[in-house]
Structure formats: C-alpha cells, structure tokens
C-alpha cells in the first residue's frame, strides 16, 4: 500500500514539473517557432499531402503534427526533421527556410495570379457617367 501511494505521489510530482517551453521563450523566438511551423504547413499543402498522411509517413501522431505546424517549441528537433523528410524527401531545413522548394514557388505564383471577375451589367451601368 505504501509503495503504491508513493508511486502515485511521485507521478503527480513529475507531471507538475513539466515545463511549458513557449512560456520560457522570448517573444521573437516564439515568433520564429511559429514561422517554422507555418512554413512546414505551407510546404505540406503545396505538395498536396493531407496532415494525417504526413503524420503517418513521419511516424508521428496527428496531434504532434498539428502542434508542429502551429510552431510548438516543446517538440524535439528530430521530429521536425522527420516531418520535413516525410513531406519533402531530400529537402533541407535551409531550403525550407529559404522557401526555395519548387512546390512552394508554384503555390506562390498561383496565389498571385488570380483572375478578376468581370463587372456585371448593373455594375457597369452604375459606373457609367
């Protein structure tokens, strides 16, 4: 009985000792972590990969991938690299940060070139002086 209660108390102490990494970061570093997560998410979307598929390829849970793409600084660096390799095999972290991946460049050009819709007859008449 004593051993069991000691184990429970020890488990609770360890759980309360967990450190919130985001709370320890300076605001500019937290912003960098968020930008890294956004770039990973953008690369995944540019390559047309679902988040669950990317998680499976990387050997991570979908929750971990979600946290990764949100820029959670409490994740291990190895998880970031595994995820990057799962969504863009052979892509380096430097290439991700430079946003030089061809899929990202294609996505950027698609976002810039959107067709403007023509004005309706009523809108044209409204503008007619």
Set out the fold topology:
Elements: H1 2-16, H2 21-24, H3 27-46, H4 51-58, H5 62-70, H6 77-87, H7 93-98, H8 102-112, H9 121-127
Helix pairs in contact: 3-5, 4-5, 4-6
Spell the H/E element sequence. Answer: HHHHHHHHH
Share in β-strands: under 5%
Q: Low-confidence segments, ≥5 residues, pLDDT <50?
A: none
User: What form results from the Cα inertia axes?
Assistant: elongated
- Average pLDDT confidence is 83
- Estimate the helix proportion, in percent: over 70%
Structural class estimated from helices and strands = mainly alpha
- Tally of DSSP β-strands: 0
The value of Rg in angstroms is: 23 Å
Count of discrete alpha- or pi-helical segments spanning 4 or more residues: 9
Largest sheet: none
Task: Give a short synopsis of this structure.
The chain has 129 residues and is mainly α. The protein is built from 9 helices and no strands.
């Amino acid at each position: 009985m004593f051993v069991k209660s000691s184990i429970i108390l020890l488990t609770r102490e360890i759980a309360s000792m967990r450190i919130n990494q985001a709370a320890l970061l300076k605001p500019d570093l937290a912003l960098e972590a968020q930008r890294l997560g956004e770039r990973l998410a953008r690369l995944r979307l540019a390559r047309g990969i679902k988040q669950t598929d990317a998680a499976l390829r990387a050997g991570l849970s979908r929750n971990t991938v979600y946290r990764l793409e949100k820029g959670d600084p409490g994740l291990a660096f190895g998880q970031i690299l595994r995820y990057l390799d799962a969504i863009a095999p052979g892509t380096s972290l430097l290439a991700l940060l430079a946003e030089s991946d061809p899929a990202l460049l294609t996505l950027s050009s698609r976002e810039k070139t959107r067709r403007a819709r023509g004005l309706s007859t009523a809108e044209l008449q409204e503008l007619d002086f």
